[in-house]
Design a protein that fits this description.
alpha+beta, paralog of FGE (formylglycine-generating enzyme), 4-stranded mixed beta sheet, 24% helix, formylglycine-generating oxidase activity, SUMF_dom, Glid_motil-assoc_lipo_GldK
C-alpha cells in the first residue's frame, strides 16, 4: 500500500478520534441531572393571525347600560396571550374544509371498494403502478411504500373489515397522490363509477338533471377531550380517558337557507343560491355555520397543520405538533376587541360610530329601514373582510359585519362568578352559547365591545360567523403590534 495513503488514513482516524473525545467531554454531566438550556422559544406566527399580548383590563359595561340587564358588570381581570384570526373566517377558507371532507370521503369509499376487490398493499395489490380503482387503494405508511407488519395488523383489525372490531377504518392511510376524477366521462373503470355516483344526489332528487354533490354526506369526524372535567375527576382517575373522550360527527356544509328563513317577506333568495360558493363572495365572512360546525373547523385546522408537520424532520427525536386552534372564550374575545384601549365603548375608541368625515366605522344597520352604511358605497348585507379599519391589535370587524361564536356558554352571572385569572366557564351540555360583536343587521348598541348576546349552539344564522384563536406559552418571544 502506498505509504502516503497509509499516513493519510492514520491522520484521519486520529483527528476523528480526537473529535469524538471532545464531543464526549462537552456533553459530560458528571452523573448529575443537567437540563437542556434554552434561549427562549419563538413560535411561527400562523398565517392570517395576529398576536394578542397578555394583560389586564377592565371587563364589562363601562358606558351607559341601555338594556338595564346588568349582565356585564365592571371588574378587572387578567388574560393570557394568544393568536387570533385578523378577520372572520371567510367563505374561501371554509371551502377548503368542505373540499377536504368531500375528497376524504370519496377516497375512503374508493379505498374500501379497492380492498373488497383484492387491491391492498398487504397482498401486493398493484402498488404504485396500479390503474383504475386500484390506484386509490390504501397505501403503506413506510417510506419505500412497501407493506409492513403494521399495515397487515391494521387490515386485520379495522372496524368492519375481516371481522375486526378494534381499529377504526380511518386509521389506514389513503392515497392522496392520485388526483380524483370528477368528470363522469373521465372515470377510469366501472367500479370507480359505482363509488363516485353515490356521492351525488340520486336522480329522483335532482333538478333539471343537474348532478350535485349530496351535501348530507359531508360529515367530519373528530375527537376531543374534556380536559377540565378530567382534571376535576375525584373518583377513579384511570377512567377519565374514556369518560371524558368525546367522538363527534358533524355535518359541515353551511346552511344556505338561512338567508331565506331569517327574514320573512324579504327577497333574499339570490344570497341563498350564491353566497357560499360564488367566487364574488370569496372574501366575505362565512355564515350559516352553527357552533358545532365552527368547533369542527377548529379541529380540522389543527389536523391540517399537524399532518403537514408530521412530514417534516423531527428535531431531537421529538415530532412537531401545533398548539390546538379553538374558538375564543367570551373574555378573550372582549379583551381582543378592545384593541388595548381601556374603557372605550367601541374597538376604535368612541364614542361615535362615524369618523371625522362622517363615514361609518363598521358594517351595521345605522337607521330604521336603512341597512346601508353609505349610500352607493355601502353594503346591504355582509361586507368583504378588511373593508373597515382594524383596531389597535390589527383585528378587523370586531364590531359589525357578522357576529361571532365564542366557546363560552351564555350565563347572565358569568362576569361575576368566574375567576379574575383567565376567566372561563365550560359547560359541556350548555345549549346557549355566547355570541359577540354585533352584525350587519344590528343597531349600534350591539357593536359595543361589552354588549353580550347569545344563540342556540345548533342554530345557524345569516348574521353569525366565527374566527379562531391559538394560545401561546407565556414568555414566548413574539413581536407584538405597537399600540396606536
Amino acid at each position: 500500500m502506498n505509504k502516503a495513503l497509509v499516513a493519510v488514513i492514520i491522520l484521519s482516524f486520529t483527528l476523528s478520534s480526537c473529535n469524538m473525545l471532545k464531543k464526549g467531554r462537552k456533553g459530560k454531566d458528571d452523573g448529575q441531572i443537567v437540563g437542556q438550556k434554552s434561549s427562549g422559544w419563538t413560535p411561527q406566527r400562523p398565517k392570517g393571525m395576529v398576536p394578542i399580548p397578555s394583560g389586564s383590563f377592565v371587563l364589562g359595561q363601562t358606558d351607559y347600560d341601555f338594556t338595564f340587564e346588568n349582565d356585564a358588570p365592571v371588574r378587572t381581570v387578567s388574560v393570557s396571550g394568544f393568536y387570533m384570526d385578523d378577520t372572520e373566517t371567510t367563505n374561501s377558507e371554509y371551502q377548503v374544509f368542505v373540499s377536504y371532507v368531500r375528497d376524504s370521503i370519496a377516497r375512503t369509499m374508493l379505498a374500501e371498494k379497492a380492498a373488497e376487490l383484492g387491491f391492498d398493499p398487504t397482498n401486493g395489490g398493484g402498488g404504485r403502478d396500479a390503474t383504475g380503482i386500484a390506484a386509490y387503494q390504501y397505501v403503506s405508511g413506510s417510506e419505500d411504500g412497501e407493506s409492513t407488519p403494521y399495515d397487515e395488523w391494521l387490515k386485520q383489525n379495522a372496524t368492519g373489515r375481516d371481522g375486526g372490531t378494534g381499529v377504526p377504518a380511518d386509521q389506514r392511510k389513503l392515497n392522496w397522490n392520485v388526483d380524483l376524477a370528477w368528470n363522469k366521462y373521465e372515470y377510469p373503470d366501472i367500479d370507480y363509477v359505482e363509488v363516485m355516483e353515490s356521492m351525488y344526489y340520486p336522480p329522483e332528487e335532482r333538478f333539471n338533471g343537474e348532478r350535485l354533490i349530496d351535501v348530507r354526506k359531508l360529515k367530519y369526524k373528530y375527537i376531543w377531550v374534556d380536559q377540565e372535567g378530567a382534571a376535576k375527576e375525584k373518583g377513579n382517575s384511570d377512567s377519565y380517558r374514556i369518560d371524558y373522550r368525546h367522538e363527534e360527527e358533524v355535518s359541515i356544509y353551511p346552511d344556505t337557507t338561512v338567508w331565506v328563513r331569517d327574514f320573512n317577506y324579504s327577497h333574499n333568495d339570490p344570497l341563498h343560491q350564491n353566497y357560499f360558493w360564488h367566487q364574488a363572495y370569496s372574501d366575505y365572512p362565512v355564515v350559516g355555520v352553527s357552533w358545532d360546525q365552527a368547533m369542527a373547523f377548529c379541529a380540522y385546522k389543527t389536523k391540517k397543520q399537524n399532518d403537514y408537520l408530521s412530514t417534516k424532520k423531527k428535531k431531537n427525536g421529538v415530532s412537531n405538533k401545533v398548539i390546538d386552534y379553538r374558538l375564543p372564550t367570551e373574555i378573550e374575545w372582549e379583551y381582543a376587541a378592545r384593541g388595548g384601549l381601556q374603557d372605550a365603548p367601541y374597538p376604535w375608541g368612541g364614542p361615535y360610530l362615524t369618523d371625522d368625515r362622517g363615514c361609518y366605522l363598521a358594517n351595521f344597520k345605522p337607521k330604521r329601514g336603512d341597512y346601508i352604511e353609505d349610500q352607493g358605497k355601502g353594503y346591504m348585507y355582509t361586507a368583504p373582510v378588511k373593508t373597515f379599519h382594524a383596531n389597535g391589535y390589527g383585528l378587523y370587524d370586531m364590531a359589525g359585519n357578522v357576529a361571532e361564536w365564542t366557546s363560552s356558554p351564555y350565563d347572565k352571572a358569568f362576569y361575576q362568578t368566574t375567576s379574575s385569572l383567565n376567566p372561563s366557564i365550560m359547560r359541556e351540555h350548555s345549549e346557549n352559547k355566547s355570541v359577540r360583536g354585533g352584525s350587519w343587521k344590528d343597531v349600534g348598541y350591539l357593536l359595543m365591545v361589552s354588549a353580550r348576546d347569545w344563540e342556540h349552539k345548533d342554530s345557524a344564522r345569516s348574521f353569525i360567523g366565527f374566527r379562531t384563536v391559538q394560545s401561546f406559552p407565556e414568555g414566548a418571544k413574539i413581536k407584538f403590534k405597537k399600540k396606536r
